[in-house]
Write a structure and sequence with these properties.
The complex is a heterodimer. Chain A is α/β, with parallel strands linked by helices. In chain A, α1 runs parallel beside α7 (137-153). In chain A, β14 (367-369), α16 and β15 (411-416) form a beta-alpha-beta unit. Chain A has four domains: 5-221, Thiamin diphosphate (ThDP)-binding fold, Pyr/PP domains (Rossmann fold, 3-Layer(aba) Sandwich), CATH 3.40.50.970; 225-324, 3-Layer(aba) Sandwich (Rossmann fold), CATH 3.40.50.920; 354-522, Rossmann fold; 531-587, 2-Layer Sandwich (Alpha-Beta Plaits), CATH 3.30.70. Chain A is built from 22 helices and 22 strands. The longest helix of chain A is centred in the middle third of the chain and has 24 residues, at 198-221. In chain B, α2 (80-85) links the parallel β4 (72-77) and β5 (90-99). In chain B, 40% of the residues lie in helices and 22% in strands. By secondary structure, chain B is α/β, with parallel strands linked by helices. Chain B has a six-stranded mixed beta sheet with strand order 2-3-1-4-5-6. Chain B has one domain: Pyruvate-ferredoxin oxidoreductase, PFOR, domain III (Pyruvate-ferredoxin Oxidoreductase, domain 3, 3-Layer(aba) Sandwich), CATH 3.40.920. Chain B contains eight helices and six strands. Classes of the chains: A alpha/beta, B alpha/beta. Chains A and B meet through β8, α11, α14 and β20 of A and α1, β2, α2, α3 and α4 of B. β8 of chain A pairs antiparallel with β2 of chain B.
Chain lengths: 588, 199
């Protein structure tokens, strides 16, 4: 019987691979472009336990526990999430897996939805563990199962690295069957195996080193690595989605495709290099392969023609090929018709409750340390009310440094509910403990909105759809020792401005919980659509300072509310000095 | 499935307009016609009202999921100036199918930028092979403005060689049963208009 063929994204294919590969525990923290792996895995709830953990470190630690119990497990995160999980990773690499454990890490070359462009392959070398890199959905499925086996066979964690274009591209995958496995073999007490105190840790350290040449040999034999001999005049060494681009741009070239690139399969690389006249390394982001190939004494081109900043594409490689062959790139003269188009960056949705907080903040001369989430969009004009972004949780922690560093203005830290649970609590504890006085606003929309509405410890729901206790941000703040804890409705602008005013005047740490559910998640408008009464409107444009996409204004049509977009939150009605905006006007 | 050339398409629009669904329908239609297919869309940040691009490639064997600039046989746009933003994807003899809909970006409303006043003129100058239509108006007449993405799909289907049954199969597999009828109607209306305007 021919297998059923499905159109799957790379992320859905990884979930399928985990299912077919006998995973019984899956954990992670949402982060574009990795999020849909765990969402797809949640569909296999009768076979696989899955959870959104509060952060990536917790997610990996849960999976390590599952591995020690003998279960196969999968952990998912975006590239910067691995920084958070790096602590357990580096020592787990010493102790090693029992049940196969694969860490799926999605890189974001081009920074479509990320604050940096770090190359996760360095973590594989750093931790001295294998890394697999699929180039399309079918490989994403295959390599997940393969990586689980390698993890178990060599007792090592394995990284499965995708990029945005692997995770979010869809291609055809012939579906396979699930390999049935017992959930747990049961933990066997063995302190020298599981406890890396120095006396045993030093032994583990040696094991890690001894494992590397064995893994390198296995990589040479692995179906994940293959030589495709075509014209021997040019041999391309490549991995991940760059392989697919290279096949389009150099269809005639021979290729060494590395799906399992580290520990480097040296013998395979040498064998390939001996069969071709010239070697070109085509890799995205850092010159990870090229540096090693050169260290093997193999002459090659790479970073001298292939860009290392931003993502690769067939277009970028077409230009790189011209450069490699010493031809001038084909330059298309920019056409007049496509010049000077207005920018269309992402914006806060109509009726987004975060908008109320930004409008209120704009009334005060303060420094705002921001964080990672939809509210990052508050940095754009016209809201323009966020001053810094660093990483998850830094919106809380950095306030303390601003204050103790002597910043004369009052400091306001801003963090979302999911980010607060992820790594905001420790920063808050620090503010109280070390006698700071920042005002921390937790914009609590009851969900992890930016990545597509994943539940979090405050949502009252698990990934698998079960009801769960809802963690109280107010109670957590109080438990950290914060005495001034306020809750505001951000749709009530005057109330919000007043709370902020009083908090800024108070010389003590304050937490303001700005609570309103994400309307996009709720799936229904906050209220009835509004309209502008043209006879009352003085065109003062105060409403436009809200930066709401439903408030449209251009030279051809003037100022109006797009009733298809308006969510009826009434913030514009509140800021209009002439009472020109109302639901009454829309009814007329 | 006799063609040997890989077909490249790009769909441009604004987050929330239904680009992802349109892309899925094309992919499933190509699948139903027996082709290998790859698609790519950017999720996350881009979906919050920002500019969105979906890319679809199908043929006997497809490598890159991304379309090389200057090679798309068809460009579909659900918002008119988004067609210009991504115009350089289109091949020299490519077909552009552009909705006349205008979505004013916040950058324009807040006075930092201008929406081109001669948008239609620019579009006509940029695309020698153009189907320019009021997809939203047509979708509204059929009964749902949300189906304007299917009107655009119908129109651009006239520039491809996928059989009608494959399109129906792609739509049937991609949309919910309760809106199937209206989506099929919107597709047919677009196809009829496309056939008239085809150049």
């Amino acid at each position: 019987m021919t297998p059923r063929i499905e159109l799957l994204s790379g992320n859905e294919a990884i979930a399928r691979g985990a299912y077919e590969g006998g995973v019984t525990v899956a954990t992670g923290y949402p982060g574009t472009p990795s999020t849909e792996i765990l969402e797809a895995l949640a569909a296999f709830r009768s076979d696989i336990y899955s959870e959104w953990s509060p952060n990536e470190k917790v997610a990996l630690e849960v999976a390590v526990g599952a591995s020690f119990a003998g279960a196969r497990s999968l952990v998912t995160m975006k590239h910067v999430g691995l920084n958070v999980a790096a602590d357990p990773l580096m020592t787990f690499a010493y102790i090693g897996a029992v049940g196969g454990l694969v860490i799926c890490v999605a890189d974001d070359p081009g920074m479509h939805s990320s604050q940096n462009e770090q190359d996760t392959r360095h973590y594989a070398r750093f931790a001295k563990i294998p890394i697999f890199e699929p180039s399309d959905s079918e490989e994403a499925r295959d390599f997940t199962a393969l990586a689980l086996g390698v993890s178990e066979q060599f007792q090592t964690p394995v990284i499965l690295r995708t990029t945005t274009r692997v995770s979010h591209s869809r291609s055809l995958v012939p579906l396979g069957e699930r390999a049935l496995r017992a959930k747990s073999a049961g933990f066997v007490k063995n302190p020298p195996r599981y406890v890396p105190i120095p006396i045993w840790g030093r032994v583990m350290r040696r094991t890690v080193e001894d494992r590397l040449p064995k893994l390198s040999l296995a990589a040479c034999e692995s179906p994940a690595n293959r030589i495709e001999m075509r014209d021997p005049a040019l041999g391309i060494i490549t991995s991940s989605v760059a392989y697919q681009y290279a096949r389009d741009i150099w269809p005639e070239a021979s290729v060494l495709k590395l799906g399992w690139a580290y520990p480097f399969p040296d013998e395979l690389i040498r064998r390939f290099a001996a069969q071709v006249k010239r070697v070109l390394v085509v890799e995205e982001l850092d010159d990870f392969l090229e540096e090693h190939i050169k260290a093997l004494g193999i002459a090659c081109d790479g970073r001298n023609v292939i860009p290392g900043v931003g993502e690769l594409s067939p277009t970028a490689l077409r230009a790189a090929r011209a450069k490699y062959e010493g031809r001038p790139p084909v330059v298309v003269a920019p056409r007049a018709e496509i010049q000077d188009l207005p920018a269309r960056p992402p914006v806060l949705c109509p009726s987004c409750p975060h908008r109320g907080i930004f409008y209120a903040l704009a009334q005060f001369d303060v420094v705002v340390t921001g964080d990672i989430g939809c509210y990052s969009l508050g940095v754009f004009p016209p809201l323009n009310r966020m001053d810094t972004i660093l990483c998850m949780g830094a919106g809380v922690s950095m306030t303390q440094g601003f204050e103790k560093g002597g910043e004369p203005k009052r400091i306001v830290g801003m963090v979302g509910d999911s980010t607060f649970f992820h790594s905001g609590i420790t920063g808050l504890l620090n503010i109280v403990y070390n006698r700071g006085s920042a005002v921390i606003i937790v914009v609590d929309n009851r969900t992890t909105a930016m990545t597509g509405h994943q539940p979090n410890p405050g949502s009252g729901l698990t990934l698998m759809g079960e009801p769960a206790p809802s963690a109280s941000i107010e109670a957590l703040a109080a438990a950290c020792g914060v005495k001034r804890v306020l809750t505001v409705n951000p749709y009530e602008l005057q109330e919000t401005i007043q709370a902020l005013k009083e908090s800024l005047a108070a010389n003590e740490p304050t937490v303001i919980v700005s609570r309103a559910p994400c309307p996009l998640d709720e799936g229904e408008p906050v209220g009835q659509a509004l309209a502008i009464d043209a006879s009352q409107c003085q065109e003062c444009r105060e409403c436009l300072t809200l930066g709401c996409p439903a408030l449209e204004c251009d030279e051809a049509h003037g100022l109006r509310i797009n009733d298809l977009l308006c969510g009826g939150c009434k913030m514009c009605e509140q800021v209009c000095p002439f009472e020109a905006i109302s639901t009454k006007a829309s009814a007329q | 499935m006799s063609q040997t050339q890989t077909i490249n398409l790009v769909l441009a629009g604004v987050g929330g307009q239904g680009i992802l669904l349109a892309s899925e329908i094309i992919a499933r239609a190509a699948m139903a016609a027996g082709f290998a297919v790859k698609t790519n869309e950017v999720h996350g940040m881009a979906q919050r009202g920002g500019s969105v691009l979906a890319q679809i490639r199908y043929g006997q064997e497809v490598h890159s999921p991304l379309v090389e600039r200057g090679t798309a046989q068809v460009l579909g746009a659900l918002e008119r100036i988004e067609s210009l933003r991504h115009a350089d994807y289109l091949a020299a003899r490519g077909l552009a199918v552009v909705s006349s809909q205008q979505v004013v970006p916040v950058s324009v409303s807040s006075g930092q930028a201008r929406y081109p006043e001669d948008a239609e003129g620019r579009i006509r100058a940029a695309f020698p092979r153009l189907i320019y239509l009021d997809a939203m108006g047509i979708a509204a007449e059929i009964g749902s403005v949300r189906a304007s993405n299917l009107v655009i799909l119908g129109a651009l289907s006239t520039g491809l060689t996928l059989p009608a049954e494959a399109w129906q199969e792609g739509i049937r597999q991609s949309v919910k049963a309760q809106i199937l009828e209206i989506n099929l109607k919107a597709f047919q209306a677009g196809a009829a208009l496309g056939a008239i305007q085809a150049v």
